[in-house]
Amino acid sequence: MPREPNPTHSLVMTNNEALTTNKVAVVTGASQGIGAATVAAYRKLGWNVVANSRTIASSNDPGVLTVPGDIADPAVGARIVETALSEFGRVDTVVNNAGIFIAKPFTEYTAEDFDAVTAINLRGFVVVTQKAVEAMLARGEGGHVVTITTTLTDHPVSALASVFASLTKGGLNSATKSLAIEYAKSGIRFNAVSPGIIATPMHPAETHEFLSALHPVGRMGAISDITDAILYLENAPFVTGEILHVDGGQSAGH
């Protein structure tokens, strides 16, 4: 018998028994840009998706369950994974896409800036990933965690003061490698995609010429460049601990 819908969830499942046979991806920061495109990419593979962001709208797609809430709140991170398990029965992949970017000269950062950046970029990553890895270990069939970082960790740009991005996202790159080794024998892979500047709604059109010039190839990245990289990693079972630069050559030099 189908389960009764949980009123805290964003859509009513119509065929839970069939959907639980599919793989399940969790995507944070999923309301627009790279996150929304990642949800669509996994759906095209036939996966079910649990999608989170602070103000994400409900979905009419029975394979997409939305969980609104601020990833900086540990209770939200736990609820995302609990939702995946209760409605779809498993978690196969987590895409840690949610993040905050505050560009300021170092001496102008405030304590509030630090708290905001670390809460989303670091604590959000830790809570969701911990809960998902616990579920993967319990099932004993492995899994995958992909984290979106930034090429600024390897190639700072003088025109863009952004040390808090390097501080947090650089830590996530290191954590990706450490976790890849810790869980290699459990079949859980950890990788990161390290983008250059991507043409998303956060960058106004009038900034595109300047931002394009920061890349050796002379253009900003497209959202599809990142989703293609995520899906490559998804389908590369011998790849773990990889920081995949998708940055138009930025990390190689300029």
Number of domains: 1
Helix share bin: 25-40%
Poorly predicted residue ranges: 1-21
Class of secondary structure makeup: alpha/beta
Main CATH class? Alpha Beta
The mean pLDDT is 90
Number of strands: 7
Task: Let me know the largest β-sheet.
Answer: 7 strands, parallel
What string, H for helix and E for strand, traces the elements in order? HEHEEHEHEHEHHE
CATH H-level homologous superfamily name: NAD(P)-binding Rossmann-like Domain
C-alpha geometry: globular
**CATH architecture call:** 3-Layer(aba) Sandwich
Give the number of helices.
7
Bin the strand percentage.
5-15%
What multimeric state do the chains show? Answer: single chain
Order of neighbouring strands in the sheet with most strands: 3-2-1-4-5-6-7
Distance between the first and last residues' Cα: 60 Å
State the CATH topology. Answer: Rossmann fold
Family: Belongs to the short-chain dehydrogenases/reductases (SDR) family.
Protein name: NAD(P)-dependent dehydrogenase, short-chain alcohol dehydrogenase family
Keywords: Oxidoreductase
InterPro entries: NAD(P)-bd_dom_sf, SDR_fam
